[in-house]
Each structure stands twice: as C-alpha cells, then as structure tokens.
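Ticket opened by: R.M.
Priority: normal
Category: complex prediction / small molecule

The reporter submitted a protein together with glutamine and asked that the result be attached to this ticket for the collaborator who will pick it up next week. Submitted input follows.
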Amino acid sequence: MNPERKARMVDTEKMLSSLGSASDDTEFYAPMPAGYRPGRAKYVIVFGTVMSGLGKGIFSSSLAKCLKDKGLTVAPIKLEGYLNVDSGTLNPYRHGEVFVLDDGMETDMDLGTYERMLDQDLSRLNFATSGQIYSRVLEKERQGSYLGRDVQMIPHVTGEVKSKLRELAVASDADVVFVEIGGTVGDVENSYYIEAMRELAFEEGPDSCTFVALTYIISPPMLGEQKSKAAQLGIRGLLATGIQPHIIACRGKEPISQKVKEKLALYSNVPIGNVFSMHDCTSIYVIPDMLREAGLDEVVIDTLRIRGRLHPEGETKARAVWSGFVNRIQSPSREVTVALIGKYTSVRDSYASIIHALEHAGAAADCHVNIKWVDTTELDTERAARAIDDVHGIIVPGGFGVRGTEGKIACIERARESRIPYLGLCYGFQMAVIEYARHACGLKDANSTEIAPDTSHPVIDILPEQKQIEGLGGNMRLGGRDVEIKSNTLAARLFNGAPEVRLRFRHRYEVDPQYIERLEAGGLVFSGKAPDYPIMQILELPQNVHPYFIATQAHPEFQSRPLRPQPMFLGLVKAALARADSLDARQTTPADTTGVNAGT
Ligand code: GLN
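Result attached by the on-call engineer:
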C-alpha cells in the first residue's frame, strides 16, 4: 500500500474509534459493533431512480454473484423504508410474497432472490426496515443511552443504519457488503438511508464504497426514441444528497443508445465507460453473464481496489455449471403443466418462490413447467375440480382465511381420486388433511378451526403455543425446524434416506394430535414429524395407492435453489412427466389410430 493511502486508512481508523458513543464532546456518532475492522469490508450500494420495480434486487444479487464467483465473500442487505417491523403483516397482493428466513425473520421477497442467486442462507442481519431502525433508537432512548442528547435523525437514526451494516460486515466477515436501498431516490421514507450511505462513505474513507444508480430510460411510443431526461433528473436527485454515483446502470426495453449514455455521463459526472445498458433479457438467470460481459464487475473491483483479494480459480467452473442450468431453462426438451390453485393468482409476485422452485425442478428434469392458474375464489367447487383434469400435476399453496378453501378441497379430492400428482404446501397440507378426513375417514364435518370454529371435527386446530400470543404480528411458528423422516416412505426416497431434514415454517394451525390415529388408520401416512412433538409436518399416500401425493406443513419453496432444486418439487415435476407420458401413450394406442378414442 502506498504511504499516502496508508495514512488515509490510519485517519479513518482514528476517526471511527472516536465515533462509538454519544457524548457532548463530539458531534460524531456511529456505534461500532465489537470486532469491526475498518477497511476489511467494502460496500456496494444500489439506489433506484425514476421509479420502483426496476429489479434492484435482481441486479444487486447478480452483481454479488459475479464477485462471489471470483472467490470473494459477499453479504447482501436490503433496507426497506416502510415502518412495519417485518414483512409478516404485509398483504401479498400489494407487496409480493412474504419470504421466511431460517431464523424466522419474515422479509420482503427480494431476500428470496438473494438466497437463490447466491445459494446462501440469510438471516435477520440481512434485512432492515424503518420500523426496526426506529424501534432500536426508541429503545436506546428509553434506556438513556444517548446521555442527555436530543435524539436526532442525524446522527442517531443514521448511526443506527450504519451500525446495522457494520454488524453484518462483522458477522459475515464479508469482503463486500451489498446494500440495496428500497424505494426510489426522492422518497421521504428512504431519505435517511441515503444520508446514512453518504456518511458511511465519508467515515470509511476513499475506495470503501461503490455507489450504483439503477435508472430507467423511457422510450415513449409516440416518439419512437429513447429519452434520458427522467433518468438525468433522478440521478440529479441523488447528486443533491451529496452522493456521486460511480456507476449508472440503465434499465430499458432495448439496449441503451450511445447518445443516451453520453448525455447521462455528462450530466452526472460518471465516465462513459461506467454507464451500462441493463436492458430486458429473456431470463433473470442470464443477468450475471450480462453484467460480466459488460465489464460491470471489473469496474466494482477497481473502484473498491480489491483485485488483490480475488481467487478467480473457481470462476470458470462456476460459470460453466451456471450456463448449463441457463441452457436447460432456455431450451428444455419437453414441457408439462402444473396447476397452481390459489387466491392471489392474479398477482404472480405472491407466489414468486413457488414459480422459481418449479423452474429449478424443471431445469433439473430437462423440461419446461407451464403454470395453469386456477383461482378457487372465482370458480364454484365443481368447475374448480374440473379445471385440473387436463394438467399433469397440481399445487395447493399456502394461504389464510376462509375464501376459496372449499374449491381447494374439491381440487385435492379430484387429484387424489384421479391419481393426478399433488403437492400441498402449508395450507395445502391442512386442506389435504381435511379432504382425507371427510372423504376417506368418514368425518363429514371435518374442518380447520381457522375456517369453521364450531366444526365437530377440528382436524386442524390452532397450535397451543400460538394461542397465548395476541395480535397479528410475529405470532406464528416461524423459521427453520428439523423434521424427522419416516423410513421407507416417499419422503424418505425424495430426501435420499436422510433421517432428518430442515424445512422452513410459517403457520398458526396444525393437525390436532387427537386425530392422528384415525387418519393413519384410514390410510394417510405421516412421513415427517417434529422430533419430540406430535406436530405432523409431512403427509403422503402410499405409492401403490397414488403415484405422487405429498404435502407438507412447511414452505419448501423457500429453500429451492437454481442448482439444488427442492426434492418435493423435483418429485412433483418427475411425476408430472410420468403422467404426461401415460396420457400421450393412451392417445397413441392402436385403438386410437383406428379412430376409436381409447383415452378414457
Ligand atoms: N393459515 C394456515 C395457518 O395459519 C396456513 C398458513 C400458511 O399457509 N402459511 O396455519
């Protein structure tokens, strides 16, 4: 390191060490987590301008993947502007699915993107909301931690934000922390995050942060050309906060023209070589290669001066394996159709992880999985059940409340009786128990107390531990739990004979233990349960009764990864392929070729 840089580092360390606690002697304030080593972690910070929904999470996770493939340790974090303490109380209709981490944190769906793209389990350290930040500040205030100071947005609230990033840096020992700022530059609710990032760069010193402005280039049809003004003004907004972006990444339908790039470069003080086109592409999985080919990863490495930390030996192999996956996604040999039976089917984001899990399983089985959306709140039970006759498999996903449940139960009955492959996820597990109790065990009135509190057969009832928790926020059984797998079952085969697996949960209700024996006597197999508790977690039908009928109280969709498809989804897709084969075979029997329809 040259002496000038070294002196700067020493300065930074000196300044940081004096920032740790509130006092009257200094206006600086940045609580430092124990073990924080200034200069060890570098930061890439991604802001959105012009509008939300540009895919900041996909961009940022793809960029993080490029650096991870070069041997760097990366740790992502999403900073949400909203005041909810977590995403658990958000309506999936408005905000997309609630993603659950292994430690039980309920987060925004972007955390799913990071886990999948990086093949890395994340925790509450990787997610913050304004609700969390303010709660922490108010708690400290009540404890008198601010030593008589008036508690202010700057430096105390921004101090908490910086401290959250540094805690992640310590815990992950990351070379690079990727920070995604939720919302758009100019929003009131994320403005203090932006200010915190400016302070972070100031405190950490030169070469510590790369600022990326992700922007959108509009292309009004009546003009027929790309216009850069909205992007210019958006980036001006960022410059006005005291942040000079190092990189501008332009979203748009078509590749961004040189003229537009030049205007942005000039208007924003960003070298033209650092203005990139991130136009629409066929699949999100090609984005890491798109970034690499454009050289964006190299610009980050240079601005952060971390070339000396790279271990690129594994990069070629990692890229080859990934390309194999992308090729299988893009040119599959076959296709199958799986019906997704739900309530929010008009909002695809509410089922994001399921869609991805099917994509991963499809890639592994070399087929494309079409999804047929069946909204049971729109159809009567008879029509709902008939809607699945032509598909190769069905999924009943997680859900809450009464609406549409009878339609789901009708679909499960049809799938069970017509031997259509079935995968039930959480509510889909509970619905399968109700269906089986009603139609195979003679408990006509069987139901969940979530749906019919006065049912005479509450086969699904609220967990005793959940009964004690009031209110709606954070009162579910959440996060990763061990599941004991019964040997010689479909579940055991799917999980390669593992005696125990870890799945992620998010539920309030469970199978009432009083009914376990009756359900089992009726032929239902509980092949996964909580160790030491009578909490049923996987059910199935024996394979001589049904080719693939399995459901879990968990949400296995959260654990599927591009290169490691979740076994229950892979099993469904393979069973769907087998059903497609047998339907095809029926259509081409000799009887069929003579004009008599044998495909009954
Ligand atoms: N509503 C059910 C419960 O609370 C299922 C929850 C879910 O599907 N995530 O147990």
